[in-house]
Amino acid sequence: MHVDEKSKNTQLAKDRSDPTGNFLTTDQGIRVEHTDDSLKIGARGPTLLEDFHFREKMTRFDHERIPERVVHARGSAAHGYFQPYESQAKYTRAKFLQDPKKKTPVFVRFSTVAGSRGSADTVRDVRGFAVKFYTEEGNFDLVGNNIPVFFIQDGIKFPDIIHAAKPEPHHEMPQAQTAHDSFWDFVSLVPETLHMIMWTMSDRAIPRSYRMMQGFGVHTFRLVDDKNVARFVKFHWKPLLGTHSLVWDEAQKLAGKDPDFHRRDLFEAIEQGHFPEYELGFQIVEEADAQKLGVDLLDATKLVPEEVAPVIPVGKLTLDRNPTNFFAETEQVAFCVANIVPGIDFTDDPLMQARLFSYLDTQLTRLGGPNFAEIPINRPIAPVHNHQQDGFGRHTSNVGRANYFPNSLGGGCPFLASQQQGGFVHTPEQVSGQKLRARPESFKDHYSQAALFFRSLSAPEQEHLIDACRFELGKVESKAIQERVLEHFAKIDALLVTAVAEGLGLPAPKATPVNPKGPPASKALSMEAMKLTTPPSIQSRKIAVLVADGVDADELMAVRKELEAQGAQLKIIAKRLGTVKAANGKDVAVDKSAMTTASVEYDGVFIPGGAASVATLKKDGEARHFVQEAYLHCKTVGVSQDAEDVLKACEIAPTAPGIVSGAKAGAGAALASAFAAALAKHRHWDRKDNDRVPA
Ligand code: HDE
Q: Which residues, including other chains, have CB under 8 Å from residue 391's CB and lie 6 or more apart?
């Protein structure tokens, strides 16, 4: 069957309802002539039960809400397509991975885990990265996260960790945070969580954008070729814009200033044609080599370092279309780890096996019965024929009387597919053993990869992680819990345990770190180290330009031209909306008033010259705060030569890292290029004095 990148959109189009040029009707298609008053006896009299339009309108409103997801309730999604670079036939027979010309439609939902549907985007949390591929062989869902490992090893503990992480049951606090006693109580008692804790306390848990974070399938899957040879695989997504984070102070402020920060960023980037792109990669391990790895591939709290098994680039995911309707698509989409196509298979990872049960099960409640695969966003493009029937909300009207297999009355249809005809054949596996509830010995080391992660980070990244632990544990009220966590940290790293203990005002237990078993450090774990291999780009980055009356508009235009040519977006910010009068007498349009925006919404700040504008800005507390806050968050700040006075008023040295001054860089395009080069570094962590600057 033919599937291209437009196939899903064409299918969805059949269910779209466009009111343009149409009459308002009831659900039964009856045209409505009045919808502002209910039907009454006299204008001040009683309302009539007969008012079918009122009753229908109110009933539908009363039933608009469905249960939110028990985890990953807050999310944002986009449509796009996946295209392999070349045939992957040597590893898998999955059809969507065979032809480099083939574009398979996808729907991707990003999410936080712990918060409610209305919680803020920038909280410290894991991010979901769930991809539904609508392939010609049926739907394949790769339901991953932005962190390559998980908190627990066996799915039976999932309700426990989620209960501990979510708001506490007696008072339903705190929202969307793990900085509370019950979460850390669980962590302190379950050391298998510690590797993932290192990741969630790192900057990975506060991404700059959904467009700038990695994705991981987490579990080990199998790829199966057409001769039924299976290999182990770990799936990776790498964002082409690089992997970048916020800083914690910024993330907290954003949660109030713009709780939709990531949702807005994704939506606006796609509307503006900055399509997010991610490269799919395979880490392949031959079954015969699995024992030599030093980690058990069935243990989802462990990763395979890229130095041990490199990530092979396989193809590219491009997100190029926003959903038409949030509820119909983003809210009703149902991902399921069990949705798999021939050529890909599961493993015995006990976390994965639990997920194979949980997703469809939870969706039966959330989506109101067993027919949710018929909701347009969930429907495969591949044809569906089987004997499943009835249930709430059934759409399909099955033809004929033979609703069982085998049958003769329906001519034996629908019939079975052999492997050659695309039938899914489970990979044969020899299994024997005793029936028991137990963990394998090979799952028992909980510290060495936590140490590998911590030691792979650059000094500023380690500092951020330590601060995050001081923050989270600092909010824990029980000293016993804090002490138990420190005992675990002592087994990870001496610097970690001493610095966190100091922050908590507790004695540090003696450090007895467990050394990593494989490489002592892995470059792929540090965002700073990765930056060295990602081509620098300022594509879609947001720059705040602070202006007042008297601004040098000619210079502003020259800088703007160059930065926009490199793909950045500039927003002109002034005290009030409307226009400011430039030094050359022209009006400059203002995009945002200082009152409605904040430095945390931008990647960098630029201050053009113009004596009167500079004189106003350096006296304006709001403008100074804007610049100082950006400095504190290690962002690039650029000033024209005659705007250096603003830096002085902000107590910022023009020679500090990431400060681009016209005095050195020149003017116009030269200044813009120097600013762009600094912005492409994302942040300047080497600013030693930034906490000296008030913000
Ligand atoms: Fe999930 N997870 N999970 N999870 N998960 C859900 O399914 C579950 C796990 C992930 O945007 C739920 O439809 C169990 C790992 C994402 O709609 C639920 C276990 C990973 C999403 C569920 C895990 C994930 C979910 C809630 C441990 C990364 C959001 C709503 C065995 C590989 C998908 C729903 C979306 C959602 C169960 C662990 C990723 C309850 C039992 C590991 C991205 O079924």
A: 369, 370, 371
Measured CA to CA, the distance from residue 398 to residue 396 in angstroms comes to: 6
Q: What is d(CA 239, CA 505) in angstroms, rounded to the nearest whole number?
A: 40
Q: How confident is the model at residue 534 (pLDDT cuts 50, 70, 90)?
A: confident
d(CA 462, CA 451): 12
Count how many Cα atoms sit within 13 Å of the Cα of residue 120 in the half-sphere of its side chain: 19
**CA 71–ligand 1 middle distance (angstroms):** 7
Provide CATH code, domain 542-692. 3.40.50.880
Biggest CA–CA distance in the chain, Å, is 90
CA distance 197 to 271: 35
Please report the ipTM that was assigned to this predicted complex: 0.96
Closest among 625, 646, 638 to 672, alpha carbons compared: 638
Q: Identify how many contiguous H helices and E strands the chain contains and give both numbers.
A: 19, 18
Task: For residue 72, indicate whether it is catalytic.
Answer: yes
Find out whether 27 and 57 touch, Cβ atoms under 8 Å: no
Question: H helices of 572-690, where?
Answer: 611-619, 621-632, 644-649, 662-665, 668-679
In 36-122, which ranges are continuous DSSP H helix? 52-62
| Closest-CA residue to 670 (of 638, 634, 635) | 638
Domain spanning 447-531: CATH 1.20.1370.20: yes
Q: What is the pLDDT of residue 503?
A: 98
Domains 75-374 and 447-531 share a fold: no
Q: Smallest Cα–Cα separation from 246: which of 238, 254, 236? A: 254
Residue 296 CA neighbour count, 13 Å, CB half: 17
State pLDDT tens for residues 99-150. Answer: 999 999 999 999 999 999 999 999 999 999 999 999 999 999 999 999 999 9
In ligand 1, the atom with minimum distance to the C-alpha of 158 is: 27
Alpha-carbon span 635 to 601, nearest angstrom? 11
What is the SS3 string spanning 319-338?
Answer: EEECCCCHHHHHHCCCCCCC
Residue 531 banded pLDDT, cuts 50, 70, 90: confident
Active site residue 274: no
Neighbours of 657 (CB within 10 A): 16
pLDDT at residue 691 tops 90: no
**Does position 153 have pLDDT exceeding 90, yes or no?**
yes
SS3 category, 584: coil
Decide if pLDDT at 192 tops 80.
yes
The structural domains of the chain, with segments of one domain joined by +, span 75-374, 447-531, 542-692
DSSP summary character for residue 69: P
| Topology given in CATH for the domain delimited by 75-374 | Catalase HpII,  Chain A, domain 1 (2.40.180)
Nearest to 147 by CA among 228, 92, 215: 215
For 610, the token pair is: 């113009």
List, chain by chain if needed, residues with CB within 6 Å of any ligand 1 atom.
69-72, 75, 109, 111, 128, 130, 143-145, 150, 155, 158, 218, 300, 333-335, 351, 354-355, 358-359, 362-363
Burial class (CB in 10 A: 0-12, 13-18, 19+), 620: middle
As a whole number of angstroms, the distance between CA 426 and CA 418 comes to 12
- Angstrom CA distances, 68 to 113, 274, 334, 563, stand at 12, 30, 12, 42
Q: Phi and psi (nearest 5°) for 263?
A: -65, -45
274-291 pLDDT per residue, tens: 999 999 999 999 999 999
Query: Residue 484 and residue 479: Cα distance in Å, rounded?
Result: 9
Nearest ligand 1 atom to the CA of 69 is 30
